[in-house]
Design brief:
The protein is mostly helical. It is built from 21 helices and no strands.
C-alpha cells in the first residue's frame, strides 16, 4: 500500500512537470506580435489566440449585450465555440486575468497562466483515476506522454478527457448513475464524450440481456431493454448533468448566443488537419482532383456505417468498458470534417486502459508528432513556391495518422476490445455469462 502511494505521488509529480513544460512552451510567445514565429517555435496556442481575438478578459462567454447587434454572432464579444462548462472555465480565467491578482497584469500570458492552473487539476485527476484503475506503470502511458506537454495548454480538451475517464472508472465500479453524470458533464465541456455515451448504454443493455439468460432470443432483447436498470440509470445521469449545467445559462439569457456555437460547428468545412483535405490534395497530385468539401460528404455516411458496425460488435462480443468508450472516438477522429491537433488527447487514456501492442502506442505518438512537425512549418511558410511541397508532406502525415487510428480500431474490434488492464472491472461476471451463453 505504501509503495502504491509513493508511485502515485511520483506519477502525479511527473504529470505536474509535463504540464509545467507544456505551459512554458506556450507562454514563450504569448504576447509577441503575430509574425509567424508562433508556428516556427511551436508556441502557438488556441487559448492565447482566442484571448486576443475575442477579448476574453472583458466579456463573459454566451451572455448577451456585449457588443453591437449588427456584428455577426461569431465575431461578437461573448461568442465561444465550445460548450458551457468550457465557457465557465474560460469566463473564470478571464475574470481572474482582469483582476490583476498577484500583480499579474491583464495580458495573454496571464490568461494562459490562469487557464493552465485551472486545467491542471483535471489532468492530475485523470492520472489519479488511471492509477486507481490500472496502476502507475500503465497510467504513465498517459501521464507523461508527449501530447500532455504539447496540448495541455493548447486548448481546453483535457477538461472533458477527465470526465470521460471518470465515467469509465465509475462504470467499472458498478456505478452507472455516477458514470452517466460524469460523461454528461464531459459532454457539457466538449462534445466528444457524448459520442461514447450511446455505445456504453448499449453495452449495459447487452449485459442485462445476457444476465437474463436470453443471449439469442429476440424477444429477450426487448425484455432486457425495458428491464436494463443500469443502462437507464446511466442515461438518467447523463441527461440530468446536461440539463443541470445548462439551466443557469438559459436563466442568464445566454441561450441565443450559445446556439450560435452549434450553428458555427454545423457550418465548418474540412481544414488542413482533416483526412478529407489530405485525400483531396493527394488525389489532385495524381491527376484526379476532387474538392475536399465533396469528399467530406462521405463523412456522415462513413460515421453512420461505422457506428452500426460497432453496435453489432458490442452486441456480439460484449467488449470491455474502455474499448467501447474509445472505439467510437477513434472512428470519429478518422471521419470528422474538422480536426484540431489536441484531439489526440481524446483517446490517449485508451493506451493505459487496454493492453494494446507497444507498437500501436508508438505509432500513435509518432503519427501525432509527424502532423504537428509538418503542419506548423506549413502555417509559417510564406514562400508560395515551397508551399505545395510542404502541403504534400503534411497530407502524407495526416494520412499516416488516420491509418494508425484505423489500425488501433481494427485491433480493438478483432480482439473484442483487447485485454482490459482494469483488474476489478465487470469482466468477471461478463465472461462467465458469455461462457454460459455459448454453452446454451
Amino acid at each position: 500500500m505504501r509503495q502504491t502511494t509513493r508511485s502515485l505521488l511520483l506519477l502525479l509529480a511527473l504529470t505536474a512537470v509535463a504540464l509545467t513544460a507544456g505551459h512554458y512552451l506556450k507562454a514563450s510567445c504569448s504576447d509577441v506580435p503575430w509574425d509567424g514565429s508562433q508556428f516556427t517555435t511551436y508556441c502557438y496556442s488556441d487559448i492565447i489566440a482566442l484571448y486576443h481575438t475575442r477579448g476574453l478578459d472583458e466579456s463573459v462567454p454566451y451572455l448577451p449585450d456585449q457588443g453591437p447587434s449588427d456584428v455577426p454572432a461569431d465575431e461578437r464579444a461573448g461568442f465561444l465555440e465550445y460548450p458551457v462548462l468550457t465557457g465557465l472555465l474560460v469566463g473564470v480565467a478571464g475574470k481572474l486575468t482582469a483582476s490583476g491578482l498577484f500583480g499579474w497584469s491583464a495580458s495573454g500570458l496571464t490568461f494562459l497562466r490562469w487557464n493552465s492552473l485551472l486545467l491542471a487539476p483535471f489532468a492530475l485527476g485523470t492520472t489519479y483515476l488511471l492509477v486507481r484503475l490500472v496502476g502507475p506503470r500503465r497510467a504513465a502511458l498517459f501521464a507523461i506522454a508527449p501530447p500532455i506537454v504539447l496540448y495541455s495548454s493548447y486548448n481546453w480538451d483535457i477538461l472533458a478527457v477527465f470526465f470521460l475517464v471518470l465515467g469509465i472508472e465509475r462504470l467499472e465500479r458498478g456505478l452507472p448513475l455516477q458514470s452517466g453524470l460524469a460523461i454528461g458533464l464531459g459532454g457539457a465541456a466538449k462534445l466528444f464524450p457524448l459520442v461514447a455515451a450511446p455505445f456504453l448504454f448499449l453495452l449495459l443493455v447487452r449485459r442485462t440481456h445476457l444476465l437474463d439468460g436470453a443471449p439469442r432470443a429476440a424477444e429477450g432483447l426487448w425484455r432486457s431493454l425495458l428491464s436494463a436498470g443500469p443502462a437507464w440509470r446511466f442515461a438518467l445521469g447523463g441527461v440530468a448533468a446536461i440539463i443541470g449545467v445548462h439551466i443557469p445559462l438559459v436563466l442568464a439569457g445566454g441561450g441565443p448566443l450559445y446556439l450560435e456555437m452549434l450553428r458555427f460547428h454545423s457550418g465548418r468545412v474540412p481544414n488542413t488537419e482533416s483526412l478529407w483535405t489530405a485525400l483531396s490534395f493527394l488525389l489532385g497530385r495524381i491527376g484526379t482532383p476532387v474538392p475536399a468539401e465533396s469528399l467530406a460528404l462521405a463523412s456522415l455516411p462513413a460515421l453512420a456505417l461505422g457506428s452500426l458496425g460497432l453496435a453489432t460488435w458490442i452486441w456480439r462480443r460484449t467488449p470491455s468498458v474502455a474499448a467501447v468508450a474509445y472505439a467510437p472516438l477513434l472512428l470519429l477522429l478518422v471521419t470528422t470534417v474538422f480536426f484540431s491537433l489536441q484531439y489526440v488527447l481524446w483517446v490517449l487514456p485508451l493506451f493505459a486502459l487496454v493492453t494494446l501492442p507497444t507498437g500501436h502506442y508508438t505509432a500513435f505518438l509518432v503519427g501525432d508528432l509527424a502532423v504537428l512537425g509538418t503542419l506548423f512549418p506549413l502555417f509559417a511558410n510564406d514562400n508560395p513556391a515551397a508551399w505545395e511541397a510542404t502541403f504534400l508532406i503534411v497530407s502524407v502525415a495526416v494520412l499516416v495518422r488516420a491509418t494508425v487510428f484505423l489500425v488501433v480500431l481494427g485491433w480493438l474490434v478483432r480482439r473484442s476490445g483487447g485485454v482490459s488492464a482494469v483488474p476489478h472491472d465487470l469482466a468477471a461476471p461478463r465472461q462467465s455469462v458469455t461462457r454460459a451463453a455459448r454453452q446454451a
